[in-house]
């Protein structure tokens, strides 16, 4: 019987989803600004 892959740590941490000049996310993963305003 074939063995399947074990997937752990599902998520997108560390992946770039896109680049925009409208919003930024803090380096620690906390904090969000939209057009220069904290959200």
From TrEMBL:
GO molecular-function term, one example from the UniProt record: 2-methylcitrate synthase activity
E.C. numbers: 2.3.3.5
Keyword Transferase: yes
Keywords, in A-Z order: Acyltransferase, Transferase
Presence of the UniProt keyword Acyltransferase in the record: yes
Organism domain of life: Bacteria
Protein name as it appears in the record: 2-methylcitrate synthase
Species name: Acinetobacter sichuanensis
């Amino acid at each position: 019987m074939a063995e399947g892959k074990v997937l752990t740590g599902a998520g997108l941490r560390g992946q770039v989803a896109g680049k925009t000049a409208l919003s930024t996310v803090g380096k620690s993963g906390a904090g969000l600004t939209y057009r220069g305003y904290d959200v």
